[in-house]
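Handoff note, outgoing to incoming analyst
You'll be picking up this chain. Sequence as last confirmed:
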Amino acid sequence: MNALVAGFLLSFSLILAIGSQSAFVLRQGLKAEHVFWICLVCAVSDAILIGIGVAGFSVVLSQSDFWLNLIRYTGALFLFFYGLMNFISAFKGGHSLQAKSGNSAGSLKKTLLICLAFTWLNPHVYLDTLLLIGSVSTRYQGQGLHFFIGASLASLIFFFSLGYGARLLQPLFRQARSWQILDTGTGLIMWLIAYSLL
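Most recent structure output, in case you need it:
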């Protein structure tokens, strides 16, 4: 199989599962807040990690228990607290797309910092990009660049499709109950991932 196609398919299959990062992108897409920058940060971050993995960092990381444990426990702690915030938001309720005005949008800086935390404090992203994609890329000796391009392209397409495609669900999220369900579901995803890390 062509290295570019193989990289694309592997990356897309890994990223397709809705995780904490994807749930955040979906939420921002529904609110139509800073969607372009969020999608870009996620895609560029993935490209950097994929590049490091393809370049061979997967070998180093796989032999270091300290770094693996640090990534795992830091990520679990972050996911636990963010999940708790989602549960609190669901309990309080009152969110709807009608209630959002131009002035209520979160600041770009704060939103990007949260996005970066979801990306770089998420242990699964290291397992997927550095270890799994990095190790599979070794099957394509001399074609690492093509594999990297394919894997990065899958990430780019996924995040922008999710971020902007979320607008199709906006009519549903004009009801406060839908936001409560989304917050509860997101909180459950965060806590399940955090539990799986421990």
